[in-house]
Every structure is written in C-alpha cells, then in structure tokens.
Amino acid sequence: MVKLYIVIPCYNEEAVLPETSKRLKEKLSGLMDAGRITRDSHIVFVDDGSKDRTWELISGLHQEDRLYSGVKLSRNRGHQNALLAGLYSVKDRADAVISMDADLQDDINAIDGFLDKYEAGAEVVYGVRSSRKKDTFFKKFTAESFYKVMNFMGADVVFNHADYRLLSNRALNGLFEFKEVNLFLRGVVPMVGYKSDVVYYERNERFAGESKYPLKKMLAFAFEGITSLSIKPIRMIISLGFLMLFVSVILLIYFLVQHALGHTVAGWTSLIVSVWAIGALQLISIGVIGEYIGKVYLETKERPRFIIDMFLHEDEVLYSVSEKNA
Ligand code: UDP
Ligand code: MG
Known about the structure:
Elements: E1 4-10, H1 17-33, E2 42-47, H2 54-64, E3 68-72, H3 79-90, E4 96-99, H4 110-119, E5 124-129, H5 137-152, E6 161-168, H6 169-175, H7 185-192, E7 196-201, H8 215-229, H9 232-261, H10 268-300, E8 311-313, E9 316-318
Parallel strand pairs: 1-2, 1-4, 2-3, 5-7
Antiparallel strand pairs: 4-6, 5-6, 8-9
Bound molecules: uridine-5'-diphosphate and magnesium ion.
C-alpha cells in the first residue's frame, strides 16, 4: 500500500477550497477502502500568503479532520515556490506525492492512473492534458507556444504537462539534490531522471474564482524557466555572430564584383565590408564571453552531477530505497 500525500498550493482560493477538500476526501476515502493507499495518507494545502480567508479554511479543515494538513508561507512566493514548500514538508513522510492545483482543473480521477503507473515501477508520473477543447483559442495558443518555445530554448519540458504529477519518495529526494534557488519544476523534474510514465487526462475549467495566472505572469514564468534552466540564449548570440560572418563573406564577394564592374562610389566597398565583418566579430566575442558566464552560472547552481538509480553489489541491491522495488 502506498502512503500518498497530495500537495496543493493555494493563493486566494477561498471560493474553491470547500468543494476541493470535499471531493478530494471522497476520492481518498475510496482509495483507502479499496486498499490502495494507507489510512494515514494526507492532503496538504499550502497557503501561499493569501489575502483572503484561505488559511482560516485550511486550519478549520485540519481541526475537523486530520486527513487535511496545512503549510502556511510567510508571504506570497508564487505557485512554484509554494509547491516546493509543500513537497519539502512531506518529503520524508510520503511514499509518493501528487501535486495538483486547488481549482480542480486537474481531473482527480487521474489519481488512479498515477497509482497504477507508480505500482508498475515509475518514479515520476506526468499528468498530460489529452486535449484543450475547453480552452479559449487564446489560452490554447499561448500555452502550446509556451511548450514549443521552452523546448527550442533548451528547457526540456514535457509537452502539455503542467504541475499535475506524481513523484515517488526517491524522485522527490532526487529533486531536492538540486540546490538552485530558481528551481523551475517542469524543467528540473525530467532532469532528476528515473523511470517515468505519463497519464492522460481531460482538463476542466476552473469551477469557481478566477485564474491567478494572467498573461503577464505566464510570460514571466516562461522567461524564468528558460533563463534558469539553460544557457541556450547565450549560445544563440554566437550562432548569430557566425551567421553574420558568413553573410559578410558572401557580401564581400558581391561588393568586390560590384567594385570591379565599377558600379560603386569610392570607399563604399571597404566601408560596408568592415561594418559587417566588425559586427560579426563583436557578436562572436560577446558570445564567447557569454559562454563562460553561462558556465559560471551553471556552476553556481551546484547541481548534482548524478543521481544513482541502483547499485548492484555482491548479493545486494543498494540505493533502491523505495518499498515497491525492495
Ligand atoms: N497559486 C499560488 N500562488 C500564486 C498563484 C497561484 O499558489 O501566486 C496557485 C493557485 O492557488 C492554484 C494554482 O497555483 O492552485 C494554479 O493557479 P491558477 O489555477 O489560477 O492558474 P491557471 O490554471 O489559470 O493557469
Ligand atoms: Mg487553474
């Protein structure tokens, strides 16, 4: 049986909490009765410095029923940090943790699928949206562009996967080996490695309250993701420099031909060629410096060089700490 924790970041969610807590309780009771999860499994709400009655509701739930736990952040730190705080609080208690949003947009019936895959040996299970039928054109377009741009920029994210996922205890501890302050979960979780799997689900509309993720926050989120995960933007400067150098060589030939044919004003050829060549050299130089800054940047993150999955030694299997593999 799995000791399951569900972690839910909440920011000004008084409108949805009563319903969310009720439905999740039903879901978990069902799973407990079916003998799939232990009776001491929990639902952890993380209050991300809400300005409304969110924390009163969470502590009220906790008073009524110990199924519910609450983590209160000192102030608003944003969805990613709130989620991390929740995960951190349960990392030594849970066999598996599922993170989801407070607004029930993530279909809670996918939890069964998550558990199936976990029991089949996956340490990370990604919830992936099967379609975006219920999204407006604008949301669909911006969201799908988000994943494409992210991948192009060197931040490997799972397409159409947000933060609805299951992490095993091992994967969770692997995650916390990443010491960087700007921990972009969607990019770092795949870096943790281990066996992973995917569960498809239909994403619903938020049933009450309004989105806490306006376009402005989404753009900031994407920018954070790219710059905190990869140094590809720096590499692009070098590529641009070489591209320009190539163009300048082509132009040089063209200008020389024009010069030979006498179509040009005196001095123009040498001027225009220098402009292109110097521009190219400058870009390449900036790119090279950037490359070193990028290295320094990545070093400061002190990322783990590796995370060992298993160590077969004599008659033992070491490092394989999760109960299901034992
Ligand atoms: N959230 C949070 N802190 C914030 C903003 C949002 O903890 O500063 C939580 C919010 O309560 C919800 C989740 O992040 O549980 C996703 O937010 P939302 O549903 O508003 O985003 P959308 O689904 O519209 O992208
Ligand atoms: Mg939502």
